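User: Second chain of the day. Same drill as before.
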Amino acid sequence: MVSNNKKNGGVSRRVLQFVAILVIVSVIFPGAALAAPTVTPTLSIVPGILMQGIAPTAQLWNGAPNSLVYADQLSGPGGVKYMLGPFGTTNASGYFATSLNTYNMAPGSYTFRVYTVQAVGPRVRNSGYSNTKPLVITDGSPVGSLDSVNLGGNGRAIGWAVDPYPLLYQPSTVNISIDGWVGILCLDTGYTRSDINNYYSISGRHGFEFPVPSAFKDGQTHSLSAVGNNADMGAPAGGPATLWNSPKSFTINGSVPALPNTSNPNLKYFGYLLNGASESDKLYIDETYSFTNMGVIGGIAYNGNYSSYLNYMASHQMKAVLQVSDIFFVRDPSGKDGSVSARSCADYDLRSDYQSRWNTFVANNPNLASQALAFQLFDEPAWNGATSADLQSAAAAIKSTFSSIPIAVNESYAALDYFSVPTNVDWIGWQIYGIENPQSSNLFKKLYALMKTKRSSPSQKIFIIMDAWWGQTLHGAKGLTQAEMAQVATRYYDIARYDPDIVGIVAAKWKNGWPDYPDALGTRSLPAGVKTEHQRIGRLITGK
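Assistant: Same format as last time:
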């Protein structure tokens, strides 16, 4: 028989063994508590979005007094990590604050929670888990989210973007593209997103809205992408970055109008964007005069004398469309001024001395009445923030001198929704490059119809801008070969010869190079078959 004393002694030993095991567990796993914690800390991390190497302030309230502070990484680079710390000790009120060292933290999006552990004796968690808080570490690149597109079918993209450098959290900008086509380069984050500011403990205006262009409301599925830009281009690292949840697909109902199909007796002009008007540029007249009767000349300065070049054109039965925007307009050196219509990060204003500059130009070039086919007042005004009122004033100055010479304005496809044509403009145009078949493209047909609605007078005619160059970064990326640019030209011509509103075709362009596409090959460098088709089209139009 076993005595009661032995039985009781055995129980006592087992109880002691169990307690010892709990103590050992609490030492090895400090999160294991002997009793339910009675306090729940509150955590803040300010700011919650910052550059790698910048130290945010982490604060804990309502922790257990005089206890060690530990953290769990619940998500982020490296996955879940428990028992980070200890970072320090709470005071007698259960409060603790520290600056976090982010130099060794990989860029990414983290979430943390904290808790306290008794500092004396076994390492036992003596508080509950705090709320979770986010921390986004970047290399200087913006962060944000494309939250939604087509809310309620009204065609708007909504989201937010934050530039963490240099912790000023000033409004940033966002680039939007749809199916690879540019939508806007400088969409301001112009309104406050309280939900984002509160969640990440930041301040400033970081919300954006983008009305989907009408050309993409055709009942088809499209893909919209959003990229955040650095507000301060002096940021030492980082750069444009795709926002979270981008791209997003959307479908918005809408009809696709047919292209006109009426014989056009008004198609009279064909020529190239030739660019400069120097002596060396006369070479391009020699190369094109046999099948063209006009050329668009850029870089016109108010104090320049272009008589020699214009006379050379005239001797080859050609007239000039003179790009005179620099005479009248100047880019605001402070950048985009917040105009709703400025889509390109630029902003152009009417010069205060435009009348005297125009007078100087006219005096320096006394034969313009016979040499100029038209004056191109501005290339892409809505895209670049030039207002319709300023265009009207500049056009009035030209008309006061040359009442019978047409004034032309050309717009970017990405800003046609915002294009407003003054009544004293005679010819309008728009351009988009990289479409293989404009006759069958829904995008082209929608843009074409939209452009025609922008006319402020039924007498205003159209100069169609023909895609006549090739670049790997644009055309090649969309699957177009250099040789296929001959078919592209044929299709533009077929559109022009069946729309009586069109008076001419400008082929852009003859020379190589383009500011946005350094790899651009002009028509002169494309395969012989392309040039042969251009020559055929030009001779049919000009009769040369």
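Confidence is low (pLDDT under 50) at residues 1-34, 337-341.

User: Great, on to the next one.
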